């Protein structure tokens, strides 16, 4: 087409062009094209005719971004939240195509930037012209219009409702049929509230469902209290149920100590590991003690048998003495008397030899019996010691639970004097059960020993490493903020990439997950470990071989 300022078309030609333009583009674009042609502004007319094509491309691009954005996984923007936000934007801007496109672009941009606030407060990017809007001149760059406060509050309210819905449903014991039905009902009402708004009818229905959920959860709390009482009763009854109360004394005290700290997941796990480890060791000692007792019984039986033989011999000798007395009394010659005396002397020597032999055997067996008795006493003493010191770790040769508590008390006292900080870390070997199942318990023990050695060797001399039970370790990092403690354990995790130990000529790779927290003066170590355990669970849940802060 020609440049600006060309002659205007004849009237008949102008009408014909107007009809053609109206068939090609929408009414707004047709008016812009016709006006530009009538005024001889051919470049502007050309741009107006090309605007629908550009608008179509932009619309296709926007739809593609929306589809990909909804499907893409995100930590902050869940799929349900994305759909809810999209529905709200569509509902709030149906009457203004330009504003709708701006709002949609703004929403997608917030998804791409992983910033949930972007959908509400706006972004700093410059948006292209809204689709389907024909302008006589190129649009000046504009900032997207932010959501108004009311609409932003609606979006946030729906997010809050969705979060509370998920939290309540996860708290319900879905293994029970009634609770599962209740969770499904809450999810259904929540979804209807998000789509239709919080009408009085829906609000009342949700209130009734929440009251039912509250009763279920209260009953679960009551059940937990009853389980705690049951555990305490079982711990107190172990002494009566055991073969020898000295064996059970240490277990009872340890169990009661853990239970009194509260029925937390960590406490229950700790008691289970405590009983498992102690029962295994006591079974070994009990078997050895029983073997010693059986050997002692066998010796006693042999001694009784020897005494019985001796008794038989002396009984026969006594009968012979009586017979010899009769013969001597009736003897009438010296020769017959001498023969009887010789028989008596020979039989006396035989009996004397048998008595001496029996005495030697009895002395030897008495010595063995004394040794076995001392062995039994030693084993029973070892059983009592084991019961009293059930947390002693013999495998890794690092501090046990008792040693950890002593080190913690020392650090706590130092914190009170100097105002220093203390970072507590909880480490747990990843996939430890699978390692035991596939390679055997010997490999599992070697993994524990190797990890304990690596951690102790890597940390500072002032740091404390302790085995807390099973595959769990605790580290005390004095004068260390939680963020720095996270970096320390993360570096330690990376250092294990080359393998931890050799097993059957193969390099075994072992990783661990960890949670760290800052200890606050006045709280128990169990309170800090509970936070660290929650962070450890988060590390396990989000991929393992990482360290999270609690």
Automatic annotation (TrEMBL):
UniProt KW keywords: Coiled coil
Transmembrane intervals: none
Domain GGDEF: 420-550
Location of the region described as Disordered in the Swiss-Prot/TrEMBL record: 111-132
Xref: Gene3D superfamilies: 3.30.70.270
Reaction catalysis annotation: 2 GTP = 3',3'-c-di-GMP + 2 diphosphate
Molecular function GO labels: diguanylate cyclase activity
Enzyme Commission (EC) number: 2.7.7.65
Coiled coil: 275-302
Keyword Coiled coil among record annotations: yes
Name the UniProt record assigns to this protein: diguanylate cyclase
Organism phylogeny: Bacteria, Pseudomonadati, Pseudomonadota, Betaproteobacteria, Burkholderiales
């Amino acid at each position: 087409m020609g440049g600006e300022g060309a002659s205007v078309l004849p009237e008949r030609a102008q009408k014909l062009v107007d009809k053609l333009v109206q068939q090609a583009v929408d009414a707004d674009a047709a008016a812009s094209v016709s006006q530009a042609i009538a005024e001889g502004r051919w470049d502007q007319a050309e741009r107006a005719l090309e605007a629908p094509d550009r608008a179509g491309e932009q619309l296709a691009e926007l739809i593609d971004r929306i589809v990909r954005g909804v499907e893409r996984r995100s930590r902050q923007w869940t799929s349900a939240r994305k759909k809810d936000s999209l529905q709200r934007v569509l509902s709030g801007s149906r009457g203004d195509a330009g504003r709708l496109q701006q709002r949609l672009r703004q929403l997608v941009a917030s998804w791409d930037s992983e910033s949930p606030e972007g959908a509400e407060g706006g972004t700093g990017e410059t948006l292209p012209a809204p689709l389907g809007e024909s302008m006589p001149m190129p649009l000046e760059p504009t900032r997207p219009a932010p959501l108004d406060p009311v609409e932003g509050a609606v979006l946030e309210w729906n997010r809050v409702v969705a979060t509370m819905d998920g939290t309540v449903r996860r708290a319900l014991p879905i293994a029970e049929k009634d609770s599962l039905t209740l969770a499904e009902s809450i999810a259904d009402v929540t979804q209807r509230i998000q789509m239709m708004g919080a009408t009085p009818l829906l609000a009342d229905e949700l209130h009734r469902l929440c009251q039912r959920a509250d009763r279920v959860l209260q009953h679960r709390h009551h059940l937990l209290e009853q389980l705690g009482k049951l555990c305490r009763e079982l711990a107190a009854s172990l002494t009566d149920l055991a073969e020898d109360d000295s064996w059970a004394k240490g277990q009872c005290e340890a169990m009661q100590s853990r239970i009194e700290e509260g029925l937390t997941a960590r406490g229950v796990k700790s008691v289970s590991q405590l009983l498992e480890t102690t029962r295994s060791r006591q079974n070994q000692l009990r078997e050895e003690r029983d073997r010693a007792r059986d050997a002692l019984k066998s010796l006693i039986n042999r001694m009784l048998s020897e005494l019985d033989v001796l008794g038989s011999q002396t009984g026969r000798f006594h009968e012979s003495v009586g017979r010899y007395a009769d013969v001597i009394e009736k003897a009438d010659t010296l020769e017959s008397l001498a023969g009887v005396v010789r028989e008596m002397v020979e039989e006396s020597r035989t009996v004397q030899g048998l008595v001496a032999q029996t005495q030697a055997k009895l002395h030897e067996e008495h010595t063995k019996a004394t040794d076995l008795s001392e062995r039994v006493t030693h084993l029973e003493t070892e059983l009592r010691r084991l019961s009293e010191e059930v947390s002693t770790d013999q495998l890794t040769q690092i501090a046990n639970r008792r040693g950890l508590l002593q080190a913690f008390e020392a650090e706590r006292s130092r914190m009170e004097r100097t105002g220093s900080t203390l970072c507590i870390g909880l480490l747990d070997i990843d996939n430890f059960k699978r390692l035991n199942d596939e390679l055997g318990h010997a490999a599992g023990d070697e993994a524990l020993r190797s990890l304990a050695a690596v951690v102790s060797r890597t940390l500072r001399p002032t740091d404390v490493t302790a085995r807390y039970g099973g595959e769990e370790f605790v580290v005390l990092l004095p004068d260390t903020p939680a963020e720095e403690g996270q970096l320390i354990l993360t570096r330690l995790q990376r250092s294990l990439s080359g393998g931890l130990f050799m097993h059957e000529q193969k390099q075994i790779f072992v990783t661990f997950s960890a949670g760290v927290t800052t200890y606050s003066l006045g709280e128990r170590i169990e309170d800090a470990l509970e936070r660290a355990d929650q962070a450890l669970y988060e590390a396990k849940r989000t991929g393992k071989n990482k360290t999270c802060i609690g």
